[in-house]
Fold:
Amino acid sequence: MKVGGVLCLYGPFNYAGEFTSASNAEFDVWLKLRDALSGIRDFEAVDQLAQAQGFELMQDVAMPSNNRLLVWSKRDIIPV
Structure:
């Protein structure tokens, strides 16, 4: 992605390993019953992956139904 490009992810995320609502915990169980590799991801892990690819978190926006909109922008230098 070019410098200044934007990466957006929408959905439920855990923070500090904790569900943000009971409904998200139930949704996580349902996802894992369908596919054991699925489930609600931890924000910190997703952010770490994005940073490793040269993205900087710009916004973390609360959305309806316990979802979030995470917005990163591509930096010009990948951190070492």
Q: What stands out?
A: Strands lie at 6-11, 13-14, 41-42, 55-63, 67-74. Residues 25 and 61 are 20 Å apart (CA to CA).
